[in-house]
Write a structure and sequence with these properties.
30 strands; five-stranded antiparallel β-sheet; OB fold (Dihydrolipoamide Acetyltransferase, E2P); 8 helices; rod-shaped; 536 residues; mainly beta; 15% helix
């Protein structure tokens, strides 16, 4: 079909020897007659005004198209060839009625329908805002509902206008020539594809960049992109001590992390930060050999000792028993504080279990090494009662050196119920060194050993069957303790006490009662005297 006069002129030039000009006009009129209203025809721009664009389609009159129908009016120029939609060959004023937009819609619709279907992805430009959403140019105008414009609240939706995005075609109505698209579905699909792509390339040990999105007591969640969130546990943040993840990271930080493990099915990724650097424990036994002196910082105090950081990631335990050779501390905070810089000695190291034992007292001379020489067995010493317990009294011989007087070594003859009945804290006493154990830091003292053991004399004085007068000092369920001389008691066992049937010991006797008793036996080895009421 010959579409305009220019086509006729071209044909006339090629066939000038065969046809006359009148024949060409006739051919053109026939061609125009075949063009029906509602068809798309070609035309040339012959003039551009602020309001209209005049287009010659080869008809007897030009057509005017509103300049608003052109997407980019500034790019047009006279002479450009365009496709237009012939709405009417003549209106009431005899003017050809043309439309650029209808031509584009018709061409665009056919193109879109032939290339895409529901569920397909297509790129488009958000053209304008309309009621309930936006109109998007995807080659033809499509409707984007506001609810499908973004995954989450986008803020000001007007920001979308003029931007190009991928969209998913969710519905096509051929009868009404309507298309509905979704940016939300396109974003979701893209994220799933990106996520799948990342998981396919994910490898243990790989280093990835991410952004810290959230911090909890147990770790931090890191966004690796494509909706993949990995967990960076607090134990994998640093080789050193971390009390809370906020000490290392802040929300919004961009960090490089190491992939420790991942689970594609459950969309889980475990991340590490400390793994980017070498484990300091690998060379700890070489760097901190047993016996070496090192400096460190007190980072934690517990009832049983102090943790000392030797370097980032390497801590040793300074046990409370290793603080001093002589002084006993109830709690390490009596000597140390968090942040103290101290020198210690390495006592032991277990690289596999990441443990180092440290000592502070080892930097000083052990005074107990001289104790055996300074306080040999049999030496008489004087000291102050520093502490009294149920089993004896501790006597301070010098600063940090104590000796124990056991309750059994206070008196040869007197029965001692509790050391506090004999001693007072702070009083000075004299004693004899009975034994020295420098390894376990113990000195045994005795006070009764200041005098001769009297039991041989007692045994000869109180022979069997001797009748004595004594005073009851204690009533027990197994018998009576009777004082027969100053600080000398004997036991009157219940089997040696005549009792009537049903008669109870505590009902018949009381402390202070005077009794005549008979000596049954004196044991000078066990330091015991057995008494009887029978036959007296």
């Amino acid at each position: 079909m010959i579409e305009n006069k220019n086509d006729i002129e071209d044909v006339a030039k090629d066939e000038s020897d065969q046809m006359k000009r009148g024949d060409f006009e006739k051919l053109y009129q026939e061609s125009i007659a075949n063009v029906k209203e509602g068809q798309i025809v070609k035309g040339r721009i012959i003039a551009i005004t602020p309001k209209d664009v005049l287009v010659d389609i080869g008809y007897k009159s030009e057509g005017a198209i509103s300049i608003s129908e052109f997407t980019d009016p500034d790019a047009m120029k006279v002479g450009d060839e365009i496709e237009v939609y012939l709405e009417s060959k003549e209106d009431d004023s005899g003017i050809v009625v043309l439309s650029k937009q209808k031509a584009e819609r018709a061409v665009g619709w056919d193109m879109v329908i032939s290339r895409y279907g529901e569920g397909d992805m297509v790129e488009g430009k958000v053209a304008k805002k309309v009621k309930g959403g936006f109109m998007v140019n995807i080659g033809v105008e499509a409707f984007l509902p506001a609810s499908l414009s973004a995954l989450k609240t986008f803020g000001n939706l007007n920001q979308l206008i003029g931007q190009v995005f991928p969209f998913k075609i969710v519905k096509i109505n051929k009868a009404r020539k309507n298309i509905v698209v979704s940016r939300k579905d396109a974003l979701t699909q893209q994220k799933e594809e990106d996520k799948k792509k990342i998981f396919e390339t994910l490898q243990k040990g790989a280093v990835m960049s991410g952004i810290v999105r959230n911090i909890t007591d147990f770790g931090a969640f890191v966004d690796l992109g494509a909706s993949i969130i990995g967990l960076l546990h607090i134990t994998d943040m640093s080789w050193g001590r971390v009390s809370h993840p906020s000490e290392v990271l802040a929300i919004g930080d961009k960090i490089d992390v190491v992939v420790l493990d991942f689970d594609k099915e459950n969309n889980r990724v475990s991340l590490g930060l400390k793994q980017k650097t070498q484990n300091p424990w690998e060379a700890a036994d070489t760097k901190y050999p047993i016996g070496s002196k090192v400096k460190g910082t007190v980072v934690n105090l517990v009832p049983y000792g102090a943790f000392v950081e030797l370097e980032k990631g390497v801590e040793g335990l300074l046990h409370i028993s290793e603080l001093s050779w002589t002084k006993k501390y109830a709690n390490p905070n009596e000597l140390l504080a968090i942040g103290d810089r101290i020198e210690v000695q390495v006592l032991d190291i277990d690289k596999q279990n990441k443990k180092i034992s440290l000592g502070l007292k080892q930097l000083e001379t052990n005074p107990w090494l001289e104790v055996e020489t300074k306080y040999p067995v049999g030496t008489r010493v004087k000291g102050k009662i520093r502490n009294i317990t149920d089993y004896g009294a501790f006597v301070e011989l010098e600063d940090g050196i104590d000796g124990l007087v056991h309750v059994s070594d206070i008196s040869w003859t007197k029965r001692i119920g509790h050391p506090k009945d004999v001693f007072k804290k702070g009083e000075k006493v004299e004693a004899v060194v009975l034994a020295v154990d420098a390894t376990n830091r113990r000195i045994s003292l005795g006070i009764k050993q200041l005098t001769q053991d009297p039991w041989d004399e007692i045994a000869s004085k109180y022979i069997q069957d001797t009748v004595l007068t004594g005073k009851v000092t204690k009533v027990a369920n197994f018998g009576l303790f009777v004082e027969i001389d100053k600080d000398l008691e004997g036991l009157l066992h219940i089997s040696e006490i005549p009792l009537a049937e049903g008669e109870k010991l505590e009902e018949k006797f009381k402390v202070g009662d005077e009794l005549k008793v008979k000596v049954l036996k004196v044991d000078s080895i066990q330091h015991k005297i057995a008494l009887s009421l029978k036959g007296v």
